[in-house]
Amino acid sequence: MCSSIEEEPRYRRLLLEQIRSGALPEFDAFTQEDRSKKQQRKRKAKKEAKEAAAMREDLGMDDSAAALRSMIAQRNENREKGFNNFMADLEAKYAPKGKKTKKGKK
Predict the structure, then answer these.
(1) Which of 1, 16, 21, 97 is the most exposed place for a label (fewest CB within 10 A)?
(2) Is 29 helix (H, G, I), strand (E, B) or coil?
(3) With contact defined as beta carbons under 8 Å apart, do 19 and 26 qualify?
(4) Are 24 and 18 in contact (CB under 8 A)?
(5) Distance between CA 77 and CA 29 in Å, rounded?
(6) Is 44 helix (H, G, I), strand (E, B) or coil?
(7) CB of 33 within 8 A of CB of 41?
(8) Are 40 and 5 in contact (CB under 8 A)?
(9) Rounded to whole angstroms, how far apart are CA atoms 45 and 50?
(10) Which of 14-18, 57-61, 90-94 is predicted least confidently?
(11) Range 83-102 average pLDDT
(12) d(CA 40, CA 52)
């Protein structure tokens, strides 16, 4: 989730060291993993990277922080407009209407 496929060998090396030292239990699914599973993970990661690039392109984003800031600001504006519309609808529905009152004699 927060790492890339390029970091897998480093994680694997760290985990194997922990297994050898006895700090972690050994699981066959990890220690005797097929090459095909590793290749499948790599293919999936490449596919997801392509999808992410396509979505960035569709949204008109580049990799800069300014683009991210403008996107966040635009989303905040949209949320504020939605909230204001919601409040106006509630006010129209539940706020007391300006009723005419009878003036009493003094």
Answers:
(1) 1
(2) helix
(3) yes
(4) yes
(5) 48
(6) helix
(7) no
(8) no
(9) 9
(10) 57-61
(11) 85
(12) 18
Assigned token pair, 70: 């403008």
Chain centroid to Cα 20, Å, comes to: 36
Q: How far is CA 14 from CA 22, 48, 54, 63, 94, in A?
A: 13, 26, 34, 31, 62
What pTM does this model have?
A: 0.53
Positive or negative, the CA dihedral 60, 63, 67, 68 is positive
3-state SS class at 58: helix
Phi and psi of 95, rounded to 5°? Answer: -70, 140
Q: How far apart are the first and last CA of the chain?
A: 76
Distance of CA 95 to the CA centre of its chain: 38
Percent of the chain exceeding pLDDT 70 equals 92
